[in-house]
Structure prediction request, 261 residues.
Amino acid sequence: MDDQGQSVVGTSLRLASQISAAQLRTLSDLLADILEVSTPLPPPTSAAALLLGDPNVSAALIDIEAPMGTAAVHEAQRFSGCDLSQLTEDVPLALDAEISNVSARYRFAVTDSDAQIETRVRFQSPEQVRALRAPKFKARMLAEEGLPITGSISMDHVRRYRALSNDMNPIHADNRVAIAAGFERAVVPGMLLCGLAETACFLVHGAHNITDIRARFVSAAFVEEDVTVMVGAFVGKTRVFVLSATNDIRAIVDISSGRPR
Prediction:
């Protein structure tokens, strides 16, 4: 690292395996369970996040970890140009990452493609985490009245997602670890909130060719928490809010598409 505690990493790798049809079905079924819908769901574009559990990808990220005494808080996520059919075994990826004492950003790009997955995290002490305050949702935040989709995220849902994504961060499953990190209790993975936002968008607006997803995680969503997903109007893009039962904003997700399928 340099004197400011920042390092830059760049490397190339290949996927050990592709996301299987069984994994995509499992994820779609999980999202349907959370939102309590019987409508058959297409796999969300944000399923590309499952690639982060690929052995070769995990190995490339092994040095990106929170400094002692802090927790890695998921701050933002982007999926751009991610065609799941192109993310096949042995596909070449380029990784670039910027890591400092307070934050990290890492981006995977599929070589000779527009597909990119970018993750941003911030390293925060328990005191910093406890000091965070969730902003409240106001109706004026959506250009038109949003359509709500409700659900509840149980520990079983989170365990199923962790098994699927190979996300072993203990703050998602162990209340004691989450409390020690400054949270009220175990925290829902941000990638799962992305999937819920995209699924709610499908339920309200139907299938679209999603080309870009940008999520900001505003406050922690807790396991065993009821959620409301507010979906705005769709004119080439839409904004989706994931809220707690008391209208705390958990995530803001902007979804853009090309032509409808």
User: Anything to note?
Assistant: Strands lie at 7-14, 71-80, 92-99, 103-110, 116-124, 147-153, 210-217, 225-231, 237-244, 249-257.
